[in-house]
Each structure stands twice: as C-alpha cells, then as structure tokens.
Amino acid sequence: MSKVLWHFTMSLDGFVAGPDHSMGWLAGVTSDPGLIEEYASTTGAVLGGRNGWDAYPDASTIYGGAWQGPLFVLTHHPEDAQPAEGVTFLSCDVAEAVRIGLEAAGGKNLEVFSPTIGRQLLERGLIDEIDLHVAPVLLGDGIRLFDNPGGAPVRLALRDGDDRSATVTLRYRPA
Ligand SMILES: NC(=O)c1ccc[n+]([C@@H]2O[C@H](COP(=O)([O-])OP(=O)(O)OC[C@H]3O[C@@H](n4cnc5c(N)ncnc54)[C@H](OP(=O)(O)O)[C@@H]3O)[C@@H](O)[C@H]2O)c1
To answer: Is 9 touching ligand 1 by the criterion CB < 6 Å?
Structure first.
C-alpha cells in the first residue's frame, strides 16, 4: 500500500540543509547503496517545495539519478517557474497536493522532500512515516527538519522494534 513518506538525510543536530540551502556537508558521507535502490524502487512520486526546487532545479539528481518519475513542486506563484520535463508546479492546498501525488505514484510511495510541507502535512495527519538517515555531522545552522517555534511536542512511535517509545542510541566521536 502506498505511503506518504517524509524522507531526509539529516545532520545529527536536525538540519536537512545548511545555510542558503547548501548541501556540501553531505560530501564524504556514505550510505548503503542498497538503501538508494530500495527508495528508488518504492518511490512513485515526489512532492517538494519551491525553495528546494529553485535551489536545485534538476529532477534528474534525485537518488543520484537512480529514480525517474513525476515531481510535484508546491508554490504560491507557479506562473514564474521555468517549465521542466516531468515537473508539475502546483498551487493548491497541501492535502490536494498529496492526493495528486499519490494518484501519480500509482501504488508506490509519495516522498515529501520539503521540511515546510512535511510540517503542514504532519499537522493535518497526512504523513504516514518519517524516514531519516542521520549523517555524522553537526551543522549548527541551516534548514531544520522541523521548525515549529512555540508548537507543542509531536509524539512519534518507532516503526521497528518491540518498544515503540524507546530512545535510539547513537554514539559518535569528533572526526
Ligand atoms: N537532506 C535531504 O535529504 C534533503 C532532501 C530534499 C530536500 N532537502 C533540502 O530541503 C530544503 C527545502 O527547504 P525549505 O523547507 O526552506 O523549502 P521548501 O519546502 O522547498 O520550499 C518552501 C516553499 O514551498 C512553497 N510552499 C510550501 N507550502 C506551500 C503551500 N501550502 N502552498 C503553496 N506553496 C507552498 C512556498 O513557495 P512560494 O514561496 O513559491 O509560494 C514556500 O516558500 C532545500 O534546501 C533542499 O535542498 C534536503
């Protein structure tokens, strides 16, 4: 069954992009090639925000080129977006964007590649799963996975394991 996945590689201190959308901090960070294959094969469509698209307007780089499919970019001003093959600029309610994305995903997952859209969807109960890969780096500045000053804590349940409320232990040393 298709899911709405909020999926990121994140720094240990919770940033998914550095200042000005910089992603250079991922240089030298490795990941299991099997993981990329897994996500490339289970993803049917991607939903992103306009800032991420404007910073990296190239759909062919998703999963290092291992994935091709429909990309939807949500924006309040689609009229000034440069058309790109396979990319649809949407200006609608986030729930409608999810409906459109899921339909396009054809039974596979819809991946949400935007912190701001993910936050809105979480609030509306429209995120099925949050998948994170924690990179061994502290950024201290940039775009947070979840920026919600003044908001109440959002309780989560671990997807795998017997104790859904267990903490996850990560041990690092400065490199
Ligand atoms: N680490 C990772 O794995 C990973 C993966 C994917 C992306 N990223 C990074 O994530 C960053 C995305 O940054 P971000 O959260 O600041 O920007 P974003 O979500 O990409 O874009 C925010 C913009 O999306 C549009 N938007 C959001 N909600 C909307 C709504 N309800 N209706 C209409 N338009 C809406 C608005 O565009 P308008 O202003 O045009 O209205 C808003 O300004 C990028 O730097 C990207 O590189 C990281």
So the answer is: yes
